[in-house]
Amino acid sequence: MRATVVGLVTPHLLRVVDLANDAEKGVNVDWHVRDAVSRSMAELADQYNAAALMQALVDGLESAAADAPRARTAYARVLKSAAEAARRLLRD
């Protein structure tokens, strides 16, 4: 089985989306989001194409935040903060 960018990044992206859904229900997920993003970036950094994988995660989070329905403000806020955190880790 061959690993692809989508196959490697999607589980990490979905983990953050699940947390964003929890935030929409009123759960405080800030710490969990920071932890999920830092763990995801660390796991992706171990791959041979780490730069492409980490950029794909950032792009996926930004895209999900941009596509979020306007009525789901907490959902969009969590995705935006996750994208910002991932982008900061990518620069470091």
Provide a compact summary of the structure.
The chain is mainly α. 78% of the residues lie in helices and 0% in strands. The chain has one domain.
Question: Would you kindly provide a written description of the structure presented here, covering whatever features stand out?
Answer:
It is a single chain. The termini are far apart. The protein is mainly alpha-helical. The radius of gyration is 13 Å and the shape is globular. The protein has one domain (5-91). It has helices at residues 5-24, 30-45, 50-66, 73-91.
How much helix, percentage-wise, in residues? Answer: over 70%
| SS field, number of helical segments | 4
First-last Cα distance: 32 Å
Report strand %: under 5%
Radius of gyration: 13 Å
**Global structural class:** mainly alpha
Mean of pLDDT = 93
The biggest beta sheet, please? none
Q: Strand-and-helix sequence, N→C?
A: HHHH
Which stretches of 5+ consecutive residues score pLDDT under 50? none
Number of strands: 0
Shape: globular
Domain count: the total is: 1
Notable characteristics:
92 residues; globular; mainly alpha; 0% strand
Task: Furnish the topology, listing elements before pairings.
Elements: H1 5-24, H2 30-45, H3 50-66, H4 73-91
Helix pairs in contact: 1-2, 1-3, 1-4, 2-4, 3-4
